Amino acid sequence: xxxxxxxxxAGAGFAVATVAWTIGFYGPSVYLVALTEKHGWSSxxxxxxxxxxxxxxxxxxxxxxxxxxxxxxxxxxxxxTAALAAGxxxxxxxxxxxxxxxxxxxxxxxxxxxxxxxxYAIVGPxxxxxxxxALSIALTGxxxxxxxxxxxxTALLPEYGFDGASRLVAGGCAIVLIxxxxxxxxxxxxxxxxxxxxxxxxHGDTGDPRPMASAAxxxxxxxxxxxFWTIAAPFALGLFVQxxxxxxxxxxxxxxxxxxxxxxxxxxxxxxxxxGRLAVGTVxxxxxxxxxxxxxxxxxxxxxxxxxxxxxxxALLTGCLLFGFGxxxxxxxxxxxxxxxxxxxxxxxxxxxxISINQLVFAxxxxxxxxxxxxxxxxxxxxxxxxxxxxxxxxVVLIRPRATPPAR
Length: 408
Fold this sequence. Notes:
Elements: H1 5-25, H2 27-39, H3 43-61, H4 64-70, H5 73-93, H6 100-114, H7 116-123, H8 131-184, H9 219-222, H10 226-257, H11 259-283, H12 289-309, H13 313-327, H14 329-341, H15 347-362, H16 365-376, H17 380-397
Helix pairs in contact: 1-5, 1-6, 1-7, 1-8, 2-3, 2-8, 3-6, 3-15, 4-7, 4-15, 5-6, 5-8, 7-8, 7-15, 8-11, 8-14, 10-11, 10-13, 10-14, 10-15, 10-16, 10-17, 11-13, 12-13, 12-14, 12-17, 14-15, 16-17
């Protein structure tokens, strides 16, 4: 049996996600510290630019899927990678605070095209029945980026400084990803037809065409659909909890475990995020995605309760592992619900809008945990509130749409 081209695309999606999250998602926390140390600029000044960066990327992300429907994915990935690399290199050479705005605008452009919505748009059209596994493989690159980003910068910064390190990271990402994009993404699925013009077989490359919708629902129409909000709302709130907890995880664990054991628990949380995503990805195409999503929310809630109430190493580690099980899955599962409940022609628009809402909401997660901790003197109340939010998310995601959205 010939090797199916779609799996090469999924592998390329892994590389795209790794580069995008390394520079566009995990990078800003490094840039904040490095620019403060290099120039003496206040963290508040830089943080305000980063906040605008996240807001702008959330808005642009909602349009990413439509770009991939209009333009060749290899061209878009090449342009986005160039923007990410150029922005990162520019961060190392600027010497005025106002220059942060145009530089981060470049990174916004690259990140919005290669983040979650971009990966879905690249990989999704190649698969139908095995889309869950393919997206799990591709988006594992996001978790992998979380594992490698800190060690890379830690190794490079003392030796080369921020300007030299930024050139090395940017150059390495571009040298790897741009040729890979043209090697693996040059072909289009089903002879160049977008996925919504056919109904895929077991792999996603053959089969009779599916009746086409005449047009995707507008964003205004989507936000009026109950089915849309039973996807967008629980995952936005779930990621609000997730990003908040991961930001404060080391500070939460260190007083109880010490720096070494706390760092070990954080590392295993990242490993569990990868393992959990791949484990669910191997079976999700045969299961009800909403039910699995509710179970993932509940597993994370149990993990938070252990982190709230436990005080020994074993119990705290278990809490981290249970929470980590859902970290990767909360990124993958929304697109799989969309795939099953919306016409294929609407897929990229719906997923882009879901991710856009997710990014706007989860940006406030770290601030929420920090505010509660500062106001009440401990993380306990914040963890209890977050566990309750996840239980609510599990209930909301089980609310089914009244009917499949009509063809348009």
